[in-house]
Design goal:
This protein has 123 residues and is mainly beta. It has one domain. It contains 1 helix and 5 strands, in the order βββββα. A 3-stranded antiparallel beta sheet has the order 3-4-5, with helices on one face. The N and C termini lie far apart (60 Å).
Length: 123
């Protein structure tokens, strides 16, 4: 291991973590933990839950990570976790997994457009 006193922070040939180049990114999740992801320069899909979210009801809600299935979630103001549609589309595209996004939704159905919500008395 190279001792810390020999590290050079100003070497232009050393990309370090890649944060300055846009290759990697650090994001803060809803619980305050950080997560290393691809950077904006590596973002090659039309809609990305981190860099280019699609226009969905929870696009500005905080992100959460479900590691057991590699899925980003959005945490609504009611504290419920909803699968991020851009993350679901990425999983479908990369893994070719037919994930329909079913989840125990909050009673307010925050993840649905207002026009698609079922009135509470009809649930």
């Amino acid at each position: 291991m190279i001792p810390p006193e020999t590290w050079e922070d100003d070497d232009p040939e050393d990309p370090g973590l890649g944060l300055d180049s846009g290759l990697l990114d650090l994001i803060v999740l809803h619980d305050g933990t950080t997560m290393q992801t691809h950077g904006p320069a590596q973002c090659s899909i039309t809609h990305c839950c981190i860099h280019h979210p699609s226009d969905h009801p929870l696009r500005s809600a905080p992100l959460s990570w479900m590691a057991n299935i590699n899925l980003m979630l959005r945490v609504c103001k009611h504290g419920a976790s909803h699968p991020d549609p851009d993350s679901m589309n990425y999983i479908r595209w990369v893994a070719m997994v037919p994930f329909d996004g079913w989840h125990p939704c909050c009673p307010e159905q925050c993840c649905l457009p207002a026009s698609a919500r079922v009135p509470e008395e009809d649930q």
